[in-house]
Amino acid sequence: MFALIDGNSFYCSCERVFDPKLRRRPVIVLSNNDGCAVARTAEAKALGIKMGAPMFSIRDLCKREGVVVFSSNYTLYGDMSRRMNTVYQRFAPDIEIYSIDESFLDLTPVAPEHREELGRDLRTTVSTWTGVPTCVGIGPTKTLAKLANKIAKTTPQLGGVCDLTSDEAQHEWLPLVALEDTILVLVRSASMQNVFPPVVDWLVPSMDRSRRISQESDTSLATASDSSTPRD
Ligand SMILES: [Mg+2]
Description:
three-stranded mixed sheet, 11 helices, binds magnesium ion, alpha/beta, five-stranded mixed sheet
């Protein structure tokens, strides 16, 4: 049984921690060399700024709408990631760091009726101690936990936690996940397990592939190639 906890608009949230004036303002963080947007707050998304949008194509929009634009600061994001993982260890001793803003927690020892409550405590504690908002997905496999996290992120009434432990919950929520999200999660999962490498190589976009290669060669946090991967 796993929980996947994921930082919301992670790079932007890290920038906001150190400048409270940025709250409720549209913020984006750019990729290496300031090429394109790799993180956007909800306010920036509402302005129509797409993930990966080239900076030259949104420069006028950003000026007009007062969007705060940051160059990426990998040192800061790596440090915040380490702080968050320190908090996770208080809730579950067995943690797998999946990316700079995503970690799997093994919830096997936690009683079923306490899993969702633990997810809510986890979110609150991380927010209080680090200032970074998160969402938590819970499921019997890592793939289902990842899909649960997607649902938690896109369904405000869930309050940031989605538990897909039961068959009933899976039947209720899985049909609502966008097909493209499901395919991407399954492909990433297969990629992690080295299943069907030729198919994975064909399907996974190049930025995602660079992250996979970085994970294979170095499981430590916050490598430069990982950090340039889009972070929602
Ligand atoms: Mg994220």
